Amino acid sequence: HTTIPILEKEEARVTPPRFYKVLLLNDDYTPMDFVVIVLERFFHMGRERATQIMLKVHHEGMAVCGVYPKDIAATKVEQVTTFARQHGHPLACVMEEV
Ligand code: TYC
């Protein structure tokens, strides 16, 4: 068989990929059930894990939902924020470089 040579840009060869934690922040108004749904829908967690993370946010102020390459993390933040606002909740979702 033949192999196809792959020519990467210099940038791709020398620039390390950047990873970001996606965090949920606590607030006094977003319902607990809604946060569980967010974790199930956008972070692919089962009900049990989603409930654990929601309670960690509730008690400790924030928790990591996942770690992703920069563009994926930014998309999660945008999707969660849009979904929360559509439902009238102030839920805050932010990203932070690892
Ligand atoms: N503190 C909220 C309440 O008591 C629940 C909550 C959990 C809100 C996690 C936001 O990221 C959050 N209803």
How would you summarize this macromolecular structure in one to three sentences?
This protein is of the alpha+beta class and 98 residues long.
Report the uncertain regions.
Answer: none
Class based on secondary structure composition and strand pairing:
alpha+beta
Distance between the termini: 41 Å
Strand residue content? 15-25%
* Tally of individual helices: 4
How many E strands?
Answer: 3
Determine the mean pLDDT: 94
List the strand order in the largest sheet: 2-1-3
Order of helices and strands: HEHHEHE
Structural Rg: 17 Å
Shape descriptor = elongated
User: In this structure, how is the largest beta sheet organized?
Assistant: 3 strands, antiparallel
Q: What ligands can be seen in this structure?
A: L-tyrosinamide
Helix content: 40-55%
Keywords: Hydrolase, Protease
Organism: Tepidiphilus baoligensis
GO biological process, one term: proteolysis
GO molecular function, one term: peptidase activity
